[in-house]
């Protein structure tokens, strides 16, 4: 049997996990909003039209922050269209996804929904077709207590108290040629700088996210970050990263190694941030908001056939396989390992659109395979990430050399006296996993949850929603002063210890 070892020392800390690492994303795209979180005619809708079955599932995920309303959508969005009496809201052509946008759901509905699911709202301003003026009005509408035109308009709309949205994205993927109002680095940098300055005049407590590269492999990566931060450094706290992975080539070894690409991407983005920090000779550190990450490829061909100008057509409805859940687990491990620099992360997206939760219009709601690793990380991964030292055999793939068969990360929750180890076995056979713990001598294994399946392509559907689901019959145990386990072939593992 292959062997792997992990050493954990209570004193070797990476950083406290920012709760906002377990965020997600709702865009006006496909059926994310309409027939996803909002469906007034649904038998399980509340009096405001929010689907209660979906609310329950979102609560299970314990999502800490939700980014809204886009995504590519935001670059053509007028926030004013989505507030005020619903019967007066305009139906508009939505150009990013070529749909019809009824604007029945807007900022105020989003804030109400966030309260119902106990999550923090995170919003974006349109820097594609719009700019400083609309942004400052939007901040005034959302966050100013009252006595000014836009704050009083919010009150007239029935929201007396300010929404106090703290985290704001300065546009979305402005480096991408597909983006409405795509800009060069300098064009974006100057607009973001001036917009951020004015937004902070309205509300100095905002936490702003500059739009970073839409992917690591885009040719302008690095140069883009450096230029944008040269201009915006004093106003922003974060720069965004986005990454989506695929398995078009149906190569499990290579697919499961793709979290290494994510790791390198984070390291490179941090280097770009610190390059500007060095040039500016400042103590301020820019953090990463990894505000779009997931697997995305299953639905791309189907989406090409969708007729334009429909309201909430099915778009980006990836049906996730068991192997996708393994990569999502590995990506969560990667994010946790960078807890010192990645302070916000949003699984893109939350419902129906490349999402852990699926719904049927008028029908049920169910958990996709990727629901589980996210739920485990979000519920058990809060606390302090400890530096994992892992020794494991490695393998080479088409794109990656020296891929360890085991990747893992420990999170210590001091308040609850709990230590949780998240681990993935990338190998097609069992692996012995020996864990030496320093500072946790009085902790014992209470649970070993496993997500495993003989069929890599197994999926959950409305008719068979529990086809892929975790069990807690893992064999992790305390033995000879260590924690020992045999990790099942191709498995996601959550080993929980308590004092
Ligand atoms: O999440 C789907 C899309 O992916 C978002 O709208 C965009 O920001 C990214 O390209």
UniProtKB/TrEMBL annotation:
GO terms for biological process: L-arabinose metabolic process; polysaccharide catabolic process. It comes from the Bacteria. Residues 291-491 form the Alpha-L-arabinofuranosidase C-terminal domain. One of its GO terms (molecular function) is alpha-L-arabinofuranosidase activity. Residues 460-483 are annotated as: Disordered. Keywords: Carbohydrate metabolism, Glycosidase, Hydrolase. It catalyses: Hydrolysis of terminal non-reducing alpha-L-arabinofuranoside residues in alpha-L-arabinosides. The keyword Hydrolase applies. Its EC number is 3.2.1.55. It is an enzyme of class 3 (hydrolase). Belongs to the glycosyl hydrolase 51 family. Homohexamer; trimer of dimers. PANTHER family: ALPHA-L-ARABINOFURANOSIDASE C, ALPHA-L-ARABINOFURANOSIDASE C-RELATED. This is non-reducing end alpha-L-arabinofuranosidase. It comes from Petrotoga halophila DSM 16923. The lineage of its organism: Bacteria, Thermotogati, Thermotogota, Thermotogae, Petrotogales.
């Amino acid at each position: 049997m292959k062997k792997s070892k992990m050493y954990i020392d209570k004193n070797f800390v990476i950083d406290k996990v920012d709760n906002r690492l377990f965020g997600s994303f709702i865009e006006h795209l496909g059926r994310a909003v309409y027939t996803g979180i909002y469906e007034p005619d649904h038998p399980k809708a509340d009096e405001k039209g929010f689907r209660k079955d979906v609310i329950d599932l979102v609560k299970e995920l314990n999502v800490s922050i939700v980014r809204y309303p886009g995504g590519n959508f935001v670059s053509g969005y007028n926030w004013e269209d989505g507030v005020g009496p619903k019967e007066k809201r305009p139906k508009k052509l939505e150009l990013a996804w070529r749909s019809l946008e009824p604007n029945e759901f807007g900022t105020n509905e989003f804030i109400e929904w966030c309260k119902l699911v106990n999550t923090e709202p995170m919003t974006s301003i349109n820097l594609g077709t719009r700019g400083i003026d609309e942004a400052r009005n939007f901040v005034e509408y959302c966050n100013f207590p009252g006595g000014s035109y836009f704050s009083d308009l919010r009150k007239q709309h029935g929201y007396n108290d300010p929404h106090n949205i703290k985290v704001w994205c300065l546009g979305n993927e402005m480096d991408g040629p597909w983006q409405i109002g795509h800009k060069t680095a300098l064009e974006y940098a100057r607009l973001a700088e001036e917009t951020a300055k004015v937004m902070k005049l309205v509300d100095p407590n905002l936490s702003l996210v500059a739009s970073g590269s839409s992917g690591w492999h885009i040719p302008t990566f690095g140069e883009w970050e450096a230029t944008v931060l040269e201009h915006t450094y004093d106003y922003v706290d974060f720069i965004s990263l986005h990454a989506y992975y695929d398995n078009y080539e149906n190569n499990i070894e290579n697919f499961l190694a793709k979290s290494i690409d994510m790791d390198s991407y984070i390291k490179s983005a941090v280097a770009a941030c610190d390059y500007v920090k060095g040039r500016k000779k400042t103590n301020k550190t820019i953090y990463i908001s990894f505000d779009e990450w997931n697997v995305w490829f299953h639905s791309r061909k189907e989406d090409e056939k969708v007729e334009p100008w429909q309201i909430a057509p099915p778009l980006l409805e990836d049906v996730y396989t068991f192997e996708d859940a393994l990569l999502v687990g590995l990506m969560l491990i990667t994010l946790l390992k960078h807890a010192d620099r990645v302070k916000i992360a949003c699984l893109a997206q939350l419902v129906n659109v490349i999402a852990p939760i699926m719904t049927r219009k008028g029908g049920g709601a169910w958990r996709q395979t990727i629901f589980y690793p996210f739920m485990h990380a979000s519920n058990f991964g809060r606390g302090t990430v400890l530096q994992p030292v892992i020794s494991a055999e490695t393998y080479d793939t088409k794109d990656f050399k020296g891929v360890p068969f085991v990747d893992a990360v420990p999170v210590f929750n001091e308040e609850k006296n709990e230590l949780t180890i998240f681990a993935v076995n990338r190998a097609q056979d069992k692996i012995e996993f020996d864990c030496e713990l320093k500072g946790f001598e009085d902790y014992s294994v209470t649970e070993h949850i496993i997500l495993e399946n003989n069929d890599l392509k197994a999926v959950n559907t409305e008719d068979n929603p529990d086809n892929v689901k975790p069990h807690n019959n893992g064999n992790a145990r305390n033995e000879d002063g260590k924690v020992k386990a045999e990790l099942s072939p191709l498995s996601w593992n959550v080993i929980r210890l308590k004092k």
